[in-house]
Structures are given as structure tokens and as C-alpha cells.
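Re: zinc ion structure - here you go.
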Amino acid sequence: MISSIDCPHGKSSIITGSVLALLLAAGGNPQRSVAVGPTVIEFYVDDEPRRGLPIMDFASELVVLDRDGQIHALRGAAKENVRDLKLPYEPANPIETRDRLQSEFGRDFEIVATQHFLVVQPRGRGDRWPDLFERSHRSFVNYMSRRGVKIRRGRFPMVAVVMPDASAMYAEMERAGIQATSVAGVYERESNRVITHDGGHLEFIAATVRHEAAHQSAYNYNVHSRVVITPRWVTEGIGQLFEPEAMVMNQAGLTLRDRVNRDSLRKLKENFDGGQSDQFSQAVRDLIGTDEMFNNAQTTADAYAVAWAMMFYLAEREPKNFARLLTGTNGRGTYQPYDRFARLNDFERWVGSDVDTFAKKVAWFLKSL
Ligand SMILES: [Zn+2]
């Protein structure tokens, strides 16, 4: 899952999408400041002064990119209580971010820096979690690159927060304003953090962590954009792809069968006759057009399974269209609304077949697994 605020419609863009894309994922030196566009403002989050770049000015909220990569939506008094510092935007360096995390989480936690992550974990937990996050990220980059998806290095270190047990995790989610129940972890798009816990069987939690880590990799490495509205089946389909353990193991000996998400396939067999039923093509059409199946608790689990099937088929059988779909959804305008008509139109253009034909191809593919 991805937790995040929903931005209201009716907007005015402060900086252009291409400048913003550079801010969120830099091709070159990640510490380089950006001289184009507006300058840095000072603003307050929980009475703490922070600095960042305003990126969207909605009627009810001002969206700001913090120097550490967090996105804040300032509302009410917080929206007014800002000051232009007339300085260019410069991302925080990893040491600054690390120091800030240490004071945020306190002495019971350590911050472990890896090549791509800052992992916040209870003191003395060793390398198990940092290794899992690094491995997940590397396999994500490999899988995407092999399919021609253009990966671009992110500007900010990815922050992963490991709480000591499930109740501490829920308390941390509440502090971050995230509503979730019965989860082993979450990726939150605004704070750009994964939050999970170390209080259960790692095997059980690990599938969720691989799913959430894939969201984080996707949003930080230019597969999705954190400021673009992306259809849920696209983002969750990617998350589902990375749940199987084989996805983070050595590529040698890895077969298509190893990459199958068994939970999703089981659900498809139970509820959609393995993709052969009319309900399956209807679900495919619904997911392409709207996020309703995800939002309705009765159909959420089905939505994840069908989204997996669609994404797995594209990634394994039509990688060019897979890459085109991801580039297309990623390249839309900042917070630009995306209606049913446009979603269906774009899909048929990027994937090169109508929805019913596509659903049939996915069904045949599922049968072959
Ligand atoms: Zn997800």
C-alpha cells in the first residue's frame, strides 16, 4: 500500500514539471542547487522551523519540498506563516539528514547508512535490515533496467524506519498521520519513508517489506513521480511484483515461475477462475479507469491480485509496453487530475491494444503459469 494525502483539484503550479523532476531525481550531482524558479521559504512543522521549496499553491494548501526530500502540505495558519529566504534550493546532505533522524528518534535508535538508505532501527540489530533494503533496491533496479525502464538516481537518501514491534510501528504511523490496520509495513509518499517493525517472523514481514521497498525505489528512481497522480493499479502492481522472495535473490537460476506472486495467483484462481471469467475483464477495465476497487474494502484484495496479473504480464511478455506505460504515467503534469476517459485512452495508446483484448492476453498468460 501507499499512504499519502490526496491533493484537492484546482491548483496553480509554482514551478514547471521539468524543473521539479530534476529536483526529485537528479541525473548528475545530487548536491547541486537549483537556480531556476522560486527560492527557498522558511515554514513550520509542529512548531519546528524548516526550509524548503514551494512547489504547488492550492487554494487550501501550500505544498513544499523540504530540504531532506519530505513533502509537506501546509494548511490554515501554517500556510500563511512562511517567509521567503531568497536562497536557492539545496538538498540536505546525508550527514545533516542522519543527524536530524537521530534527534527525531532518540537514543534507543541507531541510524545505519548504506549506499542508498538511512535505516533507523533499535540499537544493536546488526545488518539484517540494512541488507534487506539494499538487496531489494538492487533487484528493483536490475529488473527495471532489463526491461528498458529508464532509471535515474534519486536526490535524497531513502529513509527506512524499523520499529521494535508492531505496536511501536502503529504508534509511529499515528505520529506520521498514517491510518492503517493489519499491515506489516507501509511506504508513505509525502515523508518518502518506509515504516516497518522487527517484532515478528522476518519471513512473514519480508514480503511486505519487499513490496513497500519497491514503492520507495519506484518513487525515488524516476519510475513514478511523488507529485504526479498515478493510477493505483500501476503503483500497486509494481509493489506486488516484488513480493516473492526470489525477486531479491541472485538472478542466476531465476525462472518465470519463481517470480510468480503465489498469493495473488491463488486469489485469481479462487475469485476469477484464473482470469477466464467475465468478471476478470470487467475488473481489468475498472482498474484502468478508476481506483474504486482499491478504495472499496470489499474489493481491495481482488484489486491487488488483478493489478499484479496485469503488471506481471506486461513486465514478462510486453516489456516495451511496460516501459512505455511507466514513462507515460510518470511524465504527466504535477498533480494533474486524471479522469476515467483519459486513463482508458492513455492505456490503449501506451499498451497498443484495447482493454478487452488485453484482458484476454493476461488470462492466457495466467493459464500458462
Ligand atoms: Zn502497496
